[in-house]
Write a structure and sequence with these properties.
homodimer; alpha+beta; 60s Ribosomal Protein L30, Chain: A; Phosphoribosyl-aminoimidazole Synthetase, Chain A, domain 2; 2 domains; eight-stranded mixed β-sheet; four-stranded mixed β-sheet; 9 helices
Chain lengths: ~325, ~325
């Protein structure tokens, strides 16, 4: 029990205060596997996400506590997108020995803050040594049986909504990489890129109210994620470019050049972790314009015709081509 | 839905025939997350495992279908070690574009064979592009509530058992890397290294009969895994080197040099995925010497004294130091 791997596991367990399982988690860290049983009347949500150095974050540009926060936030966002509540997670971590000290402490600090914020307890995982930092997070959530909001429930005529403003996280990433010290921290878009907030309250509210017919989270960008929702529902969509809420010019757009980027950022920017969902027209009256301060905006409607089209400012219709994050396209 | 990542997901879904969830799996591939609910009276087992090129397999030496088989077998072995049955899994796969064709097909072939063999259905996952092949498998299993066999239940006086023969997989790896064509396939030890069999039937039988007090699987080697079981149970162990079943000299040991390696291989060799478990002395009479052909051998006993000791052929007692696989030691 004094091997370096065992010591690493103890560091993780201590830093995340995950020794004693609670609630539906019956057994946590320290055995071959975790034991879990959902509450009566609930289903378990299972999802996993890569978070890899060089692909999803940069060792030099991203603070370790942001890496810890974001790896969990990304995976928790998939639970929000089903209308569920996150409960526990498994952490698979590969890292260099050189990073098993201070970097790891700060990483675990961000992870612990995120775990507390999202109500999600470390239940287990796997560690190994590697020259690059590799992370895989598997999140377990709960949703009342039969209440999960799938991608496949949208029908022609349904209205399409998004939460928040799109393209902010991508804009934040650009500011971060430009490396202007003033922009690196404190700017809302940089904060959104570094410490995204999965829309748990909204997802949970939509599932409870039974308002949304289909839902997904915007991780790869609207132009990539909307076609996935439409394909699962076997429908198309017509959205209005002018209605898409984009980066607030008052909060971070400093030049005419970046102002011109706003529509493209809103369509293609990834990492926003906002929710995209559809609502039957007769239920649209129940939709508030904000939920707990988060703007909810109707950007178009679902069509029988399977094309994904966008109406531009000049009234012209154009097919929307996926331009968001797809690691296999680059 | 025609992005390269979406096409890769469809290839995986098609190759693993995982479109329609069944049993406790309510929703599989194609949404933000999977939905799962265990049968009444059962708990869910959750476990995950890295399987990384360069650390756990070599692109040149390991056939792609072995990579597919073994990544799932390793994770399923943790379910066997709890006395449970595997049910479904999430596949996180990162690979180079150059491997998204023939290599992927063969990888998925091995994965599908393993999934059928273990009764474990693909439920979801995440894919990304990467210059190296990275795999993380998360397995979901079931065990009757309260019947899981933990690492923490061993008491002083319990007898220590192992299944199978130890060191075979490590010996197989050495044969594979020596690259003698005759040894590469067909030899039982090479087969055990490439296509390990998690001891599901044994784990399940032990849980059902209530015979084992503590259990873990031998993934890193006896000298690493026994101390973990003992630490979880707050006990020590005294094992008899002469009783440890090691590589069968009739099946693959070709030289005096390798014959001399047998005790070290049995103590430190990794990747066997045999089960290590403890039994109260009064229940030991119920232990058969074989279960479905698999040898079960008593190798020592649990002690109140927390040291992990081995009795050598000359009667001398020696502390057993972890010499198995620990990625942070190398």
């Amino acid at each position: 029990m004094n091997s370096p791997e065992d010591r690493l596991l103890r560091t993780i367990a201590k830093a995340t205060k995950a020794a004693k399982p609670k609630g539906s988690l019956h057994l946590g860290l320290g055995d071959d596997a975790a034991l879990w049983a959902p509450r009566a009347g609930f289903e378990t949500i299972l999802t996993c996400d890569w978070f890899l150095e060089g692909s999803h974050f940069l060792r030099g540009a991203h603070p370790p506590d942001s890496v810890g926060w974001k790896c969990l936030a990304r995976a928790v966002s998939d639970v929000a997108a089903m209308g569920g509540e996150p409960k526990c997670f498994l952490l698979s971590l590969a890292l260099p020995l050189s990073h098993a000290g201070r970097w790891l402490d700060r990483f675990l600090g961000g992870l612990r803050r995120a775990a507390q914020r999202f109500g999600c307890q470390l239940a287990g995982g796997d560690t190994t040594r590697r020259h690059q930092i590799l992370i895989n997070i598997m999140v377990v959530g709960e949703v009342r049986a039969g209440k999960a909001i799938l991608r496949s429930g949208a029908e022609a005529g349904d209205l399409i909504f998004v939460s928040g403003r799109l393209g902010e996280a991508e804009f934040g990433l650009r500011s971060l990489l430009r490396g202007r010290t003033a922009n690196r921290r404190g700017s809302p878009s940089v904060e959104k890129h570094l410490y995204p907030e999965p829309r748990l309250a909204l997802g949970h509210w939509l599932a409870k109210m039974g308002i949304a017919t289909a839902m997904t989270d915007l991780s790869d960008g609207l132009s990539s994620d909307l076609p996935r929702l439409c394909a699962a529902s076997r429908v198309g969509a017509l959205i209005d470019a002018g209605k898409i809420p984009s980066v607030d010019p008052a909060k971070g757009l400093h030049s005419r050049a970046s102002a011109a980027d706003r529509p493209a950022l809103a369509l293609n920017g990834g990492d926003d972790y906002e929710l995209l969902f559809t609502v039957r027209p007769r239920k649209a009256r129940q939709m508030p314009s904000r939920l707990q301060g988060l703007p909810l905006t109707c950007i178009g409607k679902i069509t029988r015709k399977k094309a994904i089209q966008v109406v531009l400012a000049n009234g012209q219709k154009k097919n929307l081509l996926p331009g968001g994050w797809d690691p296999f396209r680059r």
